[in-house]
Amino acid sequence: MAVLSETEIEVLNKVVADYPNNEELDLTAFIAEVIGITGVHVEEGWYNQDINETHITFYFMSDEEIDFSEDTNENEEYYIQVDIWSKEDCFKLKKKVKKLLKKAGFTYFAGNDQYETDTMIYHKAARFYFSMNVEGVN
Fold first, then answer.
1. Confidence (pTM)
2. For the residues 18-46, what does the mean pLDDT come to?
3. Based on CB atoms within 10 Å of each CB, which residue in 11, 56, 83, 102 is the most buried?
Protein backbone atom coordinates (compact mmCIF):
# COMPACT_ATOMS: atom_id res chain seq x y z
CA MET A 1 0.00 0.00 0.00
CA ALA A 2 1.28 3.46 -0.90
CA VAL A 3 2.24 5.87 1.87
CA LEU A 4 0.14 8.62 0.25
CA SER A 5 -3.27 8.10 -1.29
CA GLU A 6 -4.13 9.53 -4.70
CA THR A 7 -6.33 12.11 -2.98
CA GLU A 8 -3.49 13.19 -0.67
CA ILE A 9 -1.17 13.55 -3.67
CA GLU A 10 -3.77 15.67 -5.50
CA VAL A 11 -4.22 17.92 -2.46
CA LEU A 12 -0.45 18.22 -2.05
CA ASN A 13 0.02 19.18 -5.70
CA LYS A 14 -2.61 21.92 -5.29
CA VAL A 15 -0.98 23.22 -2.09
CA VAL A 16 2.47 23.31 -3.71
CA ALA A 17 1.06 25.09 -6.77
CA ASP A 18 -0.58 27.72 -4.55
CA TYR A 19 2.67 28.74 -2.82
CA PRO A 20 5.57 30.44 -4.62
CA ASN A 21 9.16 29.37 -3.94
CA ASN A 22 10.45 32.90 -3.49
CA GLU A 23 10.52 35.68 -0.91
CA GLU A 24 6.70 35.88 -1.01
CA LEU A 25 6.38 32.40 0.52
CA ASP A 26 4.82 32.23 3.98
CA LEU A 27 6.88 29.23 5.01
CA THR A 28 5.04 28.70 8.31
CA ALA A 29 1.65 28.52 6.58
CA PHE A 30 3.10 26.30 3.84
CA ILE A 31 4.53 23.79 6.32
CA ALA A 32 1.30 23.69 8.33
CA GLU A 33 -0.82 23.17 5.23
CA VAL A 34 1.42 20.41 3.83
CA ILE A 35 1.54 18.51 7.13
CA GLY A 36 -2.17 19.17 7.65
CA ILE A 37 -2.90 16.89 4.70
CA THR A 38 -2.43 14.05 7.21
CA GLY A 39 -5.65 15.10 8.95
CA VAL A 40 -3.80 15.37 12.27
CA HIS A 41 -3.80 18.63 14.27
CA VAL A 42 -0.71 20.73 13.40
CA GLU A 43 0.70 23.79 15.12
CA GLU A 44 3.93 25.73 15.27
CA GLY A 45 5.76 25.29 18.55
CA TRP A 46 6.41 22.43 20.92
CA TYR A 47 4.36 19.71 22.62
CA ASN A 48 0.92 20.95 23.65
CA GLN A 49 -0.10 19.15 26.85
CA ASP A 50 -3.66 20.43 26.46
CA ILE A 51 -4.16 18.24 23.38
CA ASN A 52 -4.86 14.69 24.52
CA GLU A 53 -4.65 13.14 21.10
CA THR A 54 -1.99 12.67 18.46
CA HIS A 55 -0.71 16.00 17.22
CA ILE A 56 2.18 17.38 15.20
CA THR A 57 4.29 20.42 16.00
CA PHE A 58 7.08 22.09 14.09
CA TYR A 59 9.57 24.84 14.73
CA PHE A 60 12.36 26.61 12.91
CA MET A 61 15.77 25.50 14.16
CA SER A 62 17.85 27.93 12.11
CA ASP A 63 18.23 29.65 8.77
CA GLU A 64 21.09 30.89 6.69
CA GLU A 65 21.84 32.79 3.53
CA ILE A 66 23.45 30.68 0.80
CA ASP A 67 24.49 30.75 -2.86
CA PHE A 68 26.21 34.12 -3.00
CA SER A 69 26.85 35.98 -6.22
CA GLU A 70 28.44 39.43 -6.24
CA ASP A 71 28.15 39.62 -2.42
CA THR A 72 24.40 38.94 -2.48
CA ASN A 73 22.75 35.71 -1.47
CA GLU A 74 20.44 34.14 -4.02
CA ASN A 75 18.83 31.62 -1.66
CA GLU A 76 17.98 31.14 1.98
CA GLU A 77 17.99 27.77 3.67
CA TYR A 78 15.63 27.00 6.56
CA TYR A 79 16.06 24.12 8.98
CA ILE A 80 12.95 22.82 10.72
CA GLN A 81 12.08 20.08 13.13
CA VAL A 82 8.74 18.31 12.95
CA ASP A 83 7.60 16.42 16.07
CA ILE A 84 4.81 13.87 16.31
CA TRP A 85 3.34 13.35 19.77
CA SER A 86 1.11 10.37 20.48
CA LYS A 87 0.06 7.83 23.09
CA GLU A 88 0.61 5.14 20.44
CA ASP A 89 3.49 4.42 18.09
CA CYS A 90 3.02 6.45 14.90
CA PHE A 91 5.56 4.91 12.54
CA LYS A 92 3.24 5.18 9.52
CA LEU A 93 2.31 8.77 10.33
CA LYS A 94 5.98 9.76 10.44
CA LYS A 95 6.52 8.09 7.05
CA LYS A 96 3.56 10.05 5.66
CA VAL A 97 4.86 13.37 7.04
CA LYS A 98 8.30 12.67 5.57
CA LYS A 99 6.82 11.79 2.18
CA LEU A 100 4.59 14.89 2.11
CA LEU A 101 7.38 17.28 3.01
CA LYS A 102 9.86 15.69 0.61
CA LYS A 103 7.34 15.92 -2.24
CA ALA A 104 6.80 19.58 -1.27
CA GLY A 105 10.50 20.35 -1.79
CA PHE A 106 11.98 19.73 1.67
CA THR A 107 15.04 17.56 2.22
CA TYR A 108 15.00 15.12 5.14
CA PHE A 109 18.32 14.88 6.95
CA ALA A 110 17.80 13.36 10.40
CA GLY A 111 15.27 11.89 12.77
CA ASN A 112 14.87 10.43 16.21
CA ASP A 113 12.17 8.25 17.74
CA GLN A 114 11.75 7.89 21.45
CA TYR A 115 9.26 6.94 24.11
CA GLU A 116 9.06 9.42 26.96
CA THR A 117 8.49 7.32 30.07
CA ASP A 118 7.54 10.24 32.32
CA THR A 119 4.62 11.29 30.08
CA MET A 120 4.07 7.88 28.40
CA ILE A 121 4.10 9.59 25.02
CA TYR A 122 5.79 8.54 21.82
CA HIS A 123 7.84 11.38 20.40
CA LYS A 124 8.94 11.09 16.80
CA ALA A 125 11.16 13.85 15.46
CA ALA A 126 12.16 14.55 11.87
CA ARG A 127 14.46 17.29 10.64
CA PHE A 128 14.32 18.90 7.23
CA TYR A 129 15.76 21.81 5.34
CA PHE A 130 14.17 23.93 2.66
CA SER A 131 15.88 26.26 0.21
CA MET A 132 14.01 29.39 -0.84
CA ASN A 133 14.93 31.54 -3.82
CA VAL A 134 15.41 35.19 -2.79
CA GLU A 135 17.44 36.35 -5.75
CA GLY A 136 16.88 40.03 -6.40
CA VAL A 137 15.43 40.76 -2.95
CA ASN A 138 18.53 42.21 -1.31
1. 0.88
2. 91
3. 56
Q: Which residues of 100-116 are buried (b: 16+ CB within 10 A; e: fewer)?
A: bbeebebeeeeeeeeee
CB 128 within 8 Å of CB 101: yes
Q: What is the DSSP string of 1-62?
A: --SS-HHHHHHHHHHHHHS-SSTT--HHHHHHHHHHTTSSEEEESS--TT--S-EEEEEEEE
Determine contact, residues 103/88, Cβ cutoff 8 Å.
no
Confidence (pLDDT) at 126: 97
pLDDT value at 111 more than 60: yes
